[in-house]
Amino acid sequence: MSVLVLGGAGYIGSHAVYQLIDQGEHVVVVDNLETGHREAIHHEATFYEGDIRNVDFLRSVFKKEAIESVIHFAANSLVAESMENPLKYFDNNVYGTQVLLKAMVEHDVKKIVFSSTAATFGEPESVPITELQQTNPTNPYGESKLMMEKLMKWTEKAYGIKYVALRYFNVAGARETAEIGEDHFPETHLIPIILQTALKKRAHVTIFGVDYDTDDGTCIRDYIHVEDLIQAHLLALDYLREGNPSNVFNLGSSQGFSVKQMIETAKEVTGRDIPVKMGPRRSGDPSILIASSEKAKKVLGWTPKRTSVSKIMLDAWKWHSSHQDGYKKEVKK
Ligand code: UDP
Fold first, then answer.
1. 4 closest CA partner among 75, 71, 74, 98
2. Catalytic positions, written as ranges
């Protein structure tokens, strides 16, 4: 039996595939390679190139492979882009999940772990954010993920598909061996942008807003190492395999770092100069997001091991400094 990983060529999905294979699982990857990279797919995984919105394609994968469970990462995930193009988000994230659930129902696959986001909360009532806080997204990306959670809830009631929704805070870092890492085009995430600036591939980092109600005026986020994050997915899969009920968990390091603090950390880790410019706020950005991950620790037995922000930055640096053009270099080999 296999675990089907949708979006297994993407940044987070590829790390999941590597860890699943480390654990001896057989893995089937589906990815449309719109943002994912063929080079990021583990050579032992069986790969199908295609789009989850194509029901015939998905059906053919379920037909050919003995799928036991699904881990679903295939989605668009940029706040700013979602503000400009909300329908893209509802189409790929919500409709795509709807098609996936339909194929799961048809093939009697009853377990799914999927990526949700801290953006489902919007501006939090208080921090750290527990799973019990109200959800009120401030952008279409967060709204689309909340809609995915609701699709799961009603699909479970009707067809008995059990799910675990994992609400990610800011995922960062890379596999410690630097075989795989973060490579987006265009890049919009803070840590890669900071490190590309350290590598002189960019002239400066623009800080999006210095007038937030925080100590230094810049946004505070909770950065979580991608390898710790994936560990929680494997535990969530075990949790469902043991017959436990559907659930939702926040995944973060439970510590907040401002944009300015992240730039300082990067200067220390890389020993390089990182020029900065102040810019306006980016629309849709809440000021502070910090997770309470107590529930994941208690219920799943999750023990994140790479919570130091310097360690997260160091592993990201190992990847970026050894793959200055991302996966492109690998293609030319
Ligand atoms: N950010 C920034 N400059 C950049 C990119 C991001 O100041 O070039 C800020 C952004 O406003 C947010 C934080 O860094 O407060 C993290 O942003 P990122 O896009 O990495 O993740 P998100 O919070 O959107 O998931």
1. 71
2. 141
Residue 267 one-letter amino acid: K
* Confidence category of residue 332, pLDDT binned at 50, 70, 90: very low
Q: What is the dihedral of CA 241, 8, 142, 204, to 10 degrees?
A: 140
Residue 132's CB is within 10 A of a number of other CB atoms, namely 8
Q: Which region, left, alpha or beta, applies to residue 122 given φ > 0 means left and ψ of -120 to 50 means alpha? A: left
H or E element at residue 111: strand 111-117
Residue with CA closest to ligand 1 atom 21: 189
**Which of 144, 62, 136, 60 lies closest to 95 in space, CA to CA?**
144
**C-alpha–C-alpha distance, residues 198 and 217, integer Å:** 23
Instruction: Render pLDDT for 139-166 as a digit per residue (tens, 0 to 9).
Output: 999 999 999 999 999 999 999 999 999 9
Which secondary-structure segment (H or E) carries 208?
A: strand 205-208
Q: Is the Cβ–Cβ distance between 163 and 148 less than 8 Å?
A: no
- ω into residue 128 within 30 of 0, thus cis? yes
Distance CA 161, CA 222 (A): 31
The β-bridge partners of 112 are 70, 163
Structure-token pair, residue 99: 């098609």
Instruction: Output phi, psi for 287, to 5 deg.
Output: -75, -45
Say what angle helices 96-106 and 140-159 make with each other, to 10 degrees.
Answer: 20
- Its pTM surpasses 0.85: yes
Q: Which atom of ligand 1 is nearest the CA belonging to 78?
A: 24
Ligand 1 midpoint to CA 61 (Å): 36
Q: How confident is the model at residue 285 (pLDDT cuts 50, 70, 90)?
A: confident
Q: Give the Å distance between the CA of 227 and the centre of ligand 1.
A: 20
